[in-house]
Amino acid sequence: MVKTSELRTKDVVNVVDGRRLGLIGDIELDLEQGRVKSVVVPGASRFLGFFGRDRDTVIEWEQIQKIGQDVILVNVAPFTDQTHSS
């Protein structure tokens, strides 16, 4: 059994590219089914938080590969930089 408070203290790491995504900021529940639907990792702050932050990463429960003592391993498609220079 894992408590939600324990989940929020574990690093989330993507097994696809080894990238650390951050800590869980929120958990989405399906109350009708009585199960966790997804976890949300907040986007990183930009320049001391003055310019907002990146988009949150929503990870479906099925994408979680392993919940370990210190980390949560997930299988999420790698992110690409969507900004282009003109």
Automatic annotation (TrEMBL):
Task: Extract the Gene3D superfamilies matched here.
Answer: PRC-barrel domain (2.30.30.240)
Q: Where is the PRC-barrel domain?
A: 3-76
- What is the recorded name of this protein? Sporulation protein, YlmC/YmxH family
* Family matches, as Pfam families: PRC (PF05239)
Q: Which InterPro entries match?
A: PRC-brl_dom, PRC_barrel-like_sf, Spore_YlmC/YmxH
Superkingdom to which the source organism belongs: Bacteria
Q: Which NCBIfam families match?
A: spore_YlmC_YmxH (TIGR02888)
Where is the organism placed in the taxonomic lineage, from the top? Bacteria, Bacillati, Bacillota, Clostridia, Eubacteriales
